[in-house]
Amino acid sequence: MKDKKRPNMLLITLDCLRYDALHCNGEQSVITPTFDKLAKNGVSFDRNYCPYPLCMPSRSSILTGRYPMAHGVWTNGVELNENEISLVEVLRDNGYQTSCFGKFHFKPYRNKLTEPDLLENRQVNMDGIGWLKEAPDEPSHYKGFEVVKFADNTPNCDYHAWFDEKNKEYGYKESLAIEEIAVEQRKFSWVSKMPAELTKTDWICNEAKEYFDKKLDRDRPFFSWISILDPHLPYNPPEEFAKMLENAKVRKPYGFDKGIPERPKHYTKWFDYIYKHFGSKQDVLDNWQDIIRRYWAKVTHADDRVGKLLDFLESQGLLENTIVVVTSDHGTMLCDHQMIACGPHSFEGNVHIPLIWHAPGIIKESVRRNELVSLVDLLPTFFDIAGIQLPLGVQGKSYKGLLTGEKYEKRRNLIIESRMGQDLTGFKTIITDGGWKMAVYTNRVDGELYNLNEDPEEINNLFYDESYNDKKLELFREFAYELLLLEDPLPVRTSDF
């Protein structure tokens, strides 16, 4: 396929965006006209899942088309091997110009853990926030990206260099100190006094616009990743967006009256840490409506700025041959079961995320799809559409047929992973096409089993109910078969002996 016929690709990710946080996905109170329009004129997937409910493992799966069990990033703080498959490198080598704007998190942000931390199997440094004093050194061509503009939580990233200069006339401290503010106030949400034009979301979209306006070679196809940090914790939207949602109707979170499940026991341990080092549990119990409204306000802010970027691209004639994909790295609990943030569990709020494709000339019919798909499927689908051969080791499955109306062999099930420590403590979850979900834990004691068709709020854990032993056995068989299919063919054999 010649370059001029290959479509441009614009991947837009929001951090911690739940499936139900968009108006088009059923949440009537939230305001997301940009994403709603893309869904109305494209294909929206109702059963898209992340492969791991944390940033680094999930983002590494987007980049590689491989599960964490294969690419090795088993939690935050584990760096992706530089020899791993890269979606961006392959596209660059096939003639695409590549760029990224925002958060990418393929390298750790925090200071290194000390040996006692590792010995105690701590997933995070529980002695403090510990952001790196300097941003990690990045190669000039970062994972195949030719143009890189970082916005993250390190002091000398591109955004903070801009912010420090721009902020001289304002004097705001909130940009870098958001987690410290959360700890000091013992709150997960507040209305920011900082104007929207100084936020990372505005900066990311403006930097992308500047690139498309002045640096893009229009004779070559492009791949650009717009990686917005919102609506990640803390939920501190600019005032203009907070006001839009301040009186929004909010349903009670799923399982809120039941509280945090007593088993598996790590649930309690994880959220004891969250409630000790960030906001308080009392904040969740007392202020859940405001927490949710402010989360929505951050989504609305991102929707508005993405809309302005897309309007600019359309005015320049750049959307005619451009695939636009909107998704997230993972979800967040948002007070479900009295939980906040993401974490080592596979409740729907944490793992079920939006996926919208807008692709003129490729999508034959604007529809909603109910087939199971995963973030590991993005790379093979992009390559399938562009006519690029898959590298050895890709584990995802192209769903091009679901976009074009062509033949597609649907998934029977998919896998979600998580690990809590260096000693392999963790779980794997299987979700079936028939609506069952089972999580199996390495301690051989804990487990979870839900019938999502009858119990979408995941209140009734059926794992310990003997009347469901046959169903568990059936799912264990599916589990084993799926794991066999995911056996990693890498590394490549280089000698006959």
How would you describe this structure to a colleague?
This protein has a single domain, classed as Alkaline Phosphatase, subunit A. Helix content is 31%, strand content 14%. The protein has helices at 33-40, 55-64, 68-71, 87-93, 115-119, 158-166, 178-185, 200-214, 239-245, 266-277, 281-315, 348-351, 378-386, 400-404, 469-485; strands at residues 8-14, 43-45, 48-49, 97-102, 147-150, 222-228, 322-328, 352-353, 355-358, 367-369, 373-374, 413-419, 426-432, 436-441, 447-451. A hairpin with a 6-residue loop joins strand 12 (413-419) and strand 13 (426-432). Helix 8 packs parallel to helix 11 (281-315). It is globular.
Describe the structure in brief.
This protein is of the alpha/beta class and about 500 residues long.
Compute the number of strand runs. 15
> Which class do the helix and strand fractions yield?
alpha/beta
Q: Based on the structure, what is the oligomeric state of the protein chains?
A: single chain
Q: Report the sheet-strand fraction.
A: 5-15%
Please describe the topology of this protein.
Blueprint: E1 8-14, H1 33-40, E2 43-45, E3 48-49, H2 55-64, H3 68-71, H4 87-93, E4 97-102, H5 115-119, E5 147-150, H6 158-166, H7 178-185, H8 200-214, E6 222-228, H9 239-245, H10 266-277, H11 281-315, E7 322-328, H12 348-351, E8 352-353, E9 355-358, E10 367-369, E11 373-374, H13 378-386, H14 400-404, E12 413-419, E13 426-432, E14 436-441, E15 447-451, H15 469-485
Parallel strand pairs: 1-6, 1-7, 2-10, 3-11, 4-5, 4-6
Antiparallel strand pairs: 2-9, 3-8, 7-9, 12-13, 13-14, 14-15
